[in-house]
Design goal:
mainly alpha; two-stranded antiparallel sheet; 6 helices; 2 strands; globular
């Protein structure tokens, strides 16, 4: 199947910029009722990405519920950071909104089959299929 990777709280936290981690830790101290919000956001984004993949009949799902397609990982990560930052009152640079729009575009392209997640690893954007992979891809009806 196409490549998938974990999107968990630990994965996201380990990839977050250190200043955002410091800000988040301070925010949790000030808002202890929000202690689970980070994990909720990760789960919501992960579920959104998995549902988008599942919505197109030609896509093949990974059995691990903690994963997202590798081609969408950066978009999912950015959405988690953006949503967490918005809740914490972070003011983002204008470029961040472009990243979020790209994530939304990725989700729509997955849903309509413009990006495929299937049994070969030569799909996604950009992609290259060698002759053997291309034949396998064609045999699957893609």
């Amino acid at each position: 199947m196409g490549a998938w990777t974990e999107l968990t709280v630990d994965v996201v936290r380990n990839a977050m910029p250190s200043d955002l981690i410091t800000l988040y830790d301070s925010w949790i101290i000030e808002h202890p009722t929000k202690a689970n919000r980070f994990s909720e956001l990760v789960a919501e984004v992960r579920q959104t990405f998995r549902q988008a993949v599942q919505s197109f009949p030609g896509n093949v799902m990974d059995e691990n519920p903690d994963t997202v397609p590798v081609t969408g990982f950066r978009h999912a990560f950015n959405l988690v950071i953006y949503n967490l930052g918005m809740e914490m009152g972070v003011r983002f640079a204008p470029e961040v909104y472009t990243l979020i729009a790209r994530g939304e575009i990725w989700l729509r392209m997955i849903q309509n089959g413009g990006i495929r997640v299937d049994a070969t690893d030569c799909v996604g954007t950009p992609s290259y299929c060698g002759p053997q992979e291309a034949r396998a891809h064609e045999a699957l009806g893609a």
